[in-house]
Amino acid sequence: MTVAADGPPKLITPTLKTGILPGTTQGAAFAGAERAGWELGYGPLTPEDVRSADHAWLLSSVRLASPISRVDQAAKDVSEHYTSQLMDFLAQDLAETYPAEP
């Protein structure tokens, strides 16, 4: 994620053209982020992209949004604010997509 001083946050995920499968958790995060007015992007991501991002997370169906605090030997800022927002997006969208059984 990149946070611009004068604009909305921007989330970027690897493009499906790299051979990865579309992710349910990533899709839910992007749906919530889009509703909140965040910018979304797909593209090839390199380790340098992750190192230079303001914040980064690994998304999974088990851990949901797990902040990345280090890349190689470099520490990264962890944003409780944006992590909380991502978790809220996931809670809402995953509950709508996969409602609890009666």
TrEMBL record:
InterPro entries: Aminotrans_IV, Aminotransferase-like, BCAT-like_C. The lineage of its organism: Bacteria, Bacillati, Actinomycetota, Actinomycetes, Micrococcales. GO terms for molecular function: lyase activity; transaminase activity. Transmembrane segments: none annotated. Pfam families: Aminotran_4. This is Branched-subunit amino acid aminotransferase/4-amino-4-deoxychorismate lyase. Signal peptide: none annotated. Keywords: Aminotransferase, Lyase, Transferase. SUPFAM superfamilies: D-aminoacid aminotransferase-like PLP-dependent enzymes (SSF56752).
